[in-house]
Write a structure and sequence with these properties.
single chain; 224 residues; TIM Barrel; 9 helices; 9 strands; globular
Length: 224
């Protein structure tokens, strides 16, 4: 008997004013969440709050640390202030595992308000061994209010197999894995089909190597 794997939630990444305009044109059901990449949007003329309130979707607030691919060289203090500003507008927040203790008050506030916390790690050079990924997840406090997300560089099928095994051995619907780099696009389809909780897609242009356009993800994933 084949075990049915739940469909991943498709996340539309909003990284520019053009993304805001384009995502509003997508057909209903093309995605489940949108991610506000606040580190990339912080200089938008007219203010970010208007962008956030103008998107009638469930939203993830992400202020990415520059050490893990964030833009603008934002300081820890600046990132924390941006998180606080946008917490009321969002349903989830994405906090790097490396910063989980630093932002502990923000995480507690988010969870007390019924919001989900995505605890994320990014490795732009490699896919770590399975036991290392598992150790990272074990430090995340994974549970009903938290998801764990690993984005790693995949250069071979063996790297993808590591990520497949990683998501298969952990709580269904609470772990997301995705590849970047040479085999990133392939990995995102495979992992989305085999149990990754989230699959991120671009709207007007990709902000990470391996991202599919959201509309293509919505079309292809049900077919594989």
């Amino acid at each position: 008997m084949t075990t049915k794997v739940r469909r991943p939630l498709i996340v539309a990444v909003i990284a520019s004013p053009r993304d805001v305009a384009e995502v509003l044109k997508l057909p209903a059901g093309s995605f489940d969440l949108c991610e506000l990449r606040i580190d990339l949007l912080q200089t938008v003329p007219g203010g970010l709050e208007g962008l956030a309130t103008g998107l009638p979707y469930r939203k993830i607030a992400t202020v990415r640390d520059p050490r893990e691919g964030g833009a603008g060289g934002l300081s820890e203090t600046a990132r924390f202030e941006l998180f606080e500003r946008f917490l009321p507008e969002c349903d989830l927040v994405d906090v790097e595992l490396e910063n989980l203790s630093i932002y502990s008050s923000l995480v507690r506030q988010a969870e007390s308000e019924g919001k989900q916390v995505i605890v994320s790690v990014h490795d732009f050079l490699k896919t770590p061994p399975l036991d290392e990924l598992q150790s990272l997840l074990d430090c995340s406090g994974l549970g009903n209010t938290r998801l764990f997300k690993a984005a790693t560089n995949v250069g071979s099928w063996a790297d993808i197999e590591v990520l497949v095994e990683f998501i298969s051995r952990n709580l269904p619907g609470r772990v997301a894995a995705m590849g970047m780099g040479e085999l990133g696009k392939l990995s995102r389809l495979v992992l989305g089909r085999l149990g990754s909780a989230l699959v991120y897609g671009s709207v007007s242009h990709a902000v990470a190597s391996g991202q599919w356009p959201v509309a293509e993800l919505a079309r292809i994933l049900p077919e594989i």
